[in-house]
Write the C-alpha cells for this entry.
Amino acid sequence: MTATLVEQSPNRRAAKGAGSEPALLDIVKHAKGTAVGSSIEDEPDDESPLYESRRKIYPQRVQGMFRRIKWAVLFITLGIYYGLPFLRWDRGIYAPHQAVLVDLHNSRFYFFFIELWPQEVYYLTGLLILAALTLFLMNAVAGRIWCGYLCPQTVWTDLFQTIERWIEGDRREHLRRDAGPWTFDRVVRLGLKHFLWLMVAWWTGGAWVLYFADAPTLVKDLATLQAPLIAYIWIGILTLTTYSFAGLMREQVCLYMCPWPRIQAALTDEYAFNVTYRYDRGEPRASLKKAAALREQGLPAGDCVECMQCVHVCPTGVDIRNGPNLGCIQCGLCIDACDAVMAKTGRPARLIAYDTDINIHLRQDNKPPVYKLVRLRTTVYAAVIVVVGGLMLYTLATRRSESISVIHDRNPIFVRLADGSIRNAFTVHIANKALETRLFELTVAGVPGLDVVLVGDNVASGNPLIVVNPDQTRELRALLTTHAPLPTASVPLTFTITDSKDGSQARAVDNFRGP
Amino acid sequence: MPEHQRPEHFDEVTGTATTGHEWDGLRELNTPLPRWWLWVFYATIIWSIGYWIVYPSWPLISGYTPGLFGWQSRNVIVNDLAGLKAIRGPMADKLADASLQQILNDEQLVAFARAQARPIFNENCAACHGSGGAGAKGYPNLNDDDWLWGGKLDDIVITIRHGIRSTDDKTRLGSMPAFGRDGMMKRADIDTVADYVRSIARLPIEPKADLVAGKKIFADSCASCHGEAGKGKRDMGAPDLTDAIWLYGSDKSAIVDGLWNGRAGVMPAWAARLDDSTIKALTVFVHTLGGGEK
C-alpha cells in the first residue's frame, strides 16, 4: 500500500487550513520515501488540551445513486425492525402465534416455522459465525460497506439527520441558525427536533420489547400501564441509547466507540474497493476558471474544483481527498455529491468512486485497471459461509421433533441386589418438540434379559408407553436390572424411543456397568 | 501556557502533535480523548461517590457504614429464598397434604418430591450414605433391595423420623451382641458358626468346616433374631444372612469380627431437625432410588 492508513483528527485538519498543501500529497511523498519537512512546524498549536473538543458536523443533503441505495436500505431495515413483531404465524394451541418471538419465560425461540429450544443454542453460534464472516467478506469486497449502509448506528443516524434537516433546514440554513441569535423560532425548532427524535427513539425501544412478548397484547398493556416493569425499563434504556447514539453522538460512536474500524483495517487488503478520491484525475486542484486557463496553456489541471461538496455531505466529517482514513464509513455520499459537481463542470463522473489505490497507480502508468474480486480471502470467506450455512440448513432440515438423553447414575455406578443381580440406574430425558401430545415406547437394547422399570411411571416393567406433553421434556428414572452375568465390566446400551403413532425414533447410547 | 508544555514536534504523516518523547527515533503521537469521553469519566467518579452513600462501604472499628439503602447480601438471599418458596407454594402444599402412597402414585408429586429431597439428602444423609445413597462399609446402600428395617414407604419414614439406636424415644432398637467379647461364645464356636453362615449364603467355605456343629450353634444363639433359615427379621433389624448383600463384608474375618465385637450401627433421628413435609419427600426419594418395596 502506498498510502498510509491515517487516523484523522478532524479539527487538526481544520486548524491546518483547507487551503494548505494537500495532505494526501504529503502522505504519498512520505510513503515513497521522500520525507518532506512539515510546514506545520512553523505554526504550532498554541494549546495542547487534555481533550479534543468536538467539531459539530452539518451534513448536507445529497441526491444520487448511493443516496437512493441508502434510502432503500433504511426503509427496508427499519420496516422489518418496526413491523416484524406484528407478523402472525399460526402454530396451533400449544405455541404462540407471533412469527418472531424470543420467549424467555418458556425458554423458546420462534422464527416463522422454526422453534428452537435452549439446548439448540448452537444455531446461534452458527448465526454469529455467519454474521462475522459475512462482515469479513463485505470488508474484503468493498471495505466498510456494512458501516455505510447497514449498521444500525448509520441507519438511525441517517433517520435522525433527515429529521434534523426537515426541522432546522439543510446545512447552510442550519449553520446560519446555529450562528444566529436565540430567536423564538430557533427554540421551537430545536424543541420540536428533540421531541421528534425522542419519539423515534421511544418507538425504537418500544419495538424492541415486542420481540419478547405477544406484540398486540403488550402494546395494549403498555398503553394501559398494565405491562411488566421490565418492559418499561427496557423501552427507557433503548429510548435513551437510540436518542443519544443517533441524535447526539453520531459519528463519535464510529470514531471512538466502535471496534470494527480498527478490526477491519487489519482485515482489509489492497484489492478491496474503498471510496477513493482518484487523485490521478483530481490533482492538481484548481477552480473551474483557473483549470480552464491552465489547460489552455497546456499545463496539467485536475478535475477537483475544490468545491468541498464531498466534505460537506460527509456524515462523519471526513475529507476523502486525504486518502483512506478511519473516519470514512464508505457510504458513498461523497461520490453522489462529486458526481453532481462533475456533471455541472462537464467533467466525467466518478472522480470519487469505489476503487483501489492500485488502480490509481496503474492509471497513472497508463495501464488498465485491475479488478480482483476472486482472491484467497474472498474465496475462503465465501467457502466458510457456504459450509457453515449449508451445515445449519442441513441440521435444520433434518431436525427431529423428539430426542432422548440418558445420564448414568454416577454414585453408585451399579448396585448389587439381594439375589445377586446387577442394577444400573439412569436419568432419562425425553423431549417432545412437536406441538402435540405424544406416546413414546422406550426400548433398551444391548444386554439380554434386561428388566426395565421406570420410576414415577406407573408401569411395572417391559416396554412402557411414556406420555410426553406437547413442547415439553419429561424426566424419568430408569432402573435396569439383569440377572445374567455380564461378559465384561461395561456393556454398550442403546436407548430407543419410538413414537407409537408415526414410528419416528430417537436414540441415545450409554453403558451398562457391572463389577 | 508554560513553555515546556508547548508541542515541539509534529508528526509528518498525520500532522498530529507528538508528546515530545522519543525512543530510538520513535515518537509518541499526542491524540487526546474526546471531550465527552472525559466527561463520562468524571461522571463515573461522581457516580461512585453515590455508592459510598447508599451502599455499605467504609469499614469502621466495630462495624461498617451501612448506607442509606440498608442493603445487605444476606437480605438478598432471604428474599430469594422467600421467592423460591412462593414459587413452590402450590406444589409444596400438595406435598404436605398427600399421603406417602398418594405422592408415589402422582407423577408430578414424585418428581417434585425427588427434586426437593435431593439437596436435603446431600446436606443431611450423604455424609454417611454417600451422595447417591451408595453407602459404605457399615452404612447401608439405599439403592439396593435389601432392607434391615423394611423398605416400604411406612418403614422408611419411621426409620428417618426416629433413627436407629438413636436418642429418640421411639427409635428402632436391637443390636448384634458381642458374643465373643462378652463371653457368650467361645472363639472356636465363633469360628464354626461363621463357616456355617457363609455356607447358607452359598459362599465358599474351608473344607474342614464342621457345618453340623455350626448349624446347632446357629440355632441356639442366632436363630432368635436371624431366623432359623438365616433369612433375618426386620422387626429386630437383623439382616438376611443368605442374600448377596453384606453390610460389613462377607469375608470370614468380617463375620468373626461381627460375632466377637457385635454390630450396632447408629442412625440419628431426623424428626427434630427436618419438618414433616421434608421427611416425606426424603422418604419418597429413598424409596425411588431403586429398592423401594410396595
Q: What stands out?
A: Chain A is about 45% helix and 15% strand. Chain A touches chain B through 52 residues (CB under 8 Å). Chain A has three domains: 10-55+269-364, 65-264, 402-513.
